[in-house]
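Final report, Chapter 2: Outcomes

The project's central promise was a pipeline that accepts a single protein chain and returns its three-dimensional structure in a standardized token representation, suitable for archiving and comparison. That pipeline is now operational. To close this chapter, we reproduce one record exactly as it appears in the project archive, with the input sequence first and the structure output second.
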Amino acid sequence: MMNKPIHYLTIILLFVLNSCKVDKETYNRQSGDYALSESVDIQIMGRTGENIKFGNFFSDTTIVRSGDRAAGDGTGFGDFRVTLPVNIEVNDSQDMTLNIEDIFGDNKFTWQRLKSLSDQARRVGGNFEVDMPVVIRVSDSRGIEIDLEDIFSDNSFTWTVNKPGEADSNIDVGLLGGGVGGPFRVVMSVTVEVFDSEDVGIDVEDILCDMDFTWNGGAQSSAAFIGGSMDIEVPLTFRVERSERVRINLEDTAGDMILDWTAGSSEVVGGPMFYDVPTHFIVVNSRDVNIDFEDQAGDNILNWVLEEENSTPPELHSTVTATSSAVFRVTDDSEGVKINSEDFFSDNIYVWKGRFSEEARSDLDGSVSVSASAIFKVEGSQDVNIDAEDVYGDNIFAWSPPEINQASPLPASVYEIFGDVQRNVVRSDSVTIEFANLSQGNQYLWGPAPE
């Protein structure tokens, strides 16, 4: 995997001052660890009239790890750690086009434990950590087009006790004392900035998207727990200052992901989940700015599934805590600003499926806590149009449903929603602010196990 980025680096250096710093990439074949600590640094300075393409930095790779007794101390099998800051900067340039695709994409990772998984201290799935801040900055430039697609996307991750595609009915996996799934943490701040520039277009699609995660303990496994803790931090900032004719389109910051945890039975299902997905739109002393934004953290599907009946009903440990705030600021003699935004933390589906007792239902009180707010501030500006929808809405949380349509609503004690809408328009003319759905359309459901 290293040869590919290094070979491509020699081409990139013909166009940029500093690009793709390669620091370290390591594998531990015994425990199946994967660690990548590198950076992508694209700097365009003082260039004119060029069309430059970048792509496939760390992509199109298949890695399979197999093991049976890799760790006897209760540690996980298949840790995944990526530290990959992305910095794209254009300065003092004009009439430039940059096409960037697949920074970390189209990879397939499989960790498979085989039939000698009999030790009680085993865990299927290790720690999953991604630290990938993204900065796109254009300054003192004119006529710049940046098209960026698939920053961390289209990857597949599988942790399983059997070979993928094969039945595991002959595998005696015993007790997975460590459970199925490890801690899952993604930190990916995204900053898009335009300073002192004209005629700039930035299109970004699929930052953290279109990925499948599968943790499969096997049909016969009896796990201590299924699903680890989750921490997803995706703060997003758009900032335009002293610029004219700027267009920014961004879609799918963290979305369209499928996460499946499966085991035969388990003592505990789920884990605490934390989301921090604030979004800031800041326009200062600029004219003719158009920002079109959709899906900050949406359209994800998360499933926790028990395929057998426990001797004792499993416990539910599945709290969801989210911060989803949206701030819009247009100030300092800005004019002709249009912002269309939709779905900041919305359209996600969470399903915990198993034979849970009525005691488990009573333990769901306060399980979902969301801080959602929308702040609009327009000061000393004119001809401003802001249209925003769904800061937190249209999510489905379903515990133990035979089918979604067979579940019944849970009481309001299950969820707590905080936040309000603030509008502050000062010394401004021709300002339109349309806002819908701070917290609407969410469903919190309970469906009894079938008889």
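Archive annotation: Residues 3-12 form the longest helix (10 residues).
This record, like all others produced under the grant, will remain available to the consortium after the project formally closes.
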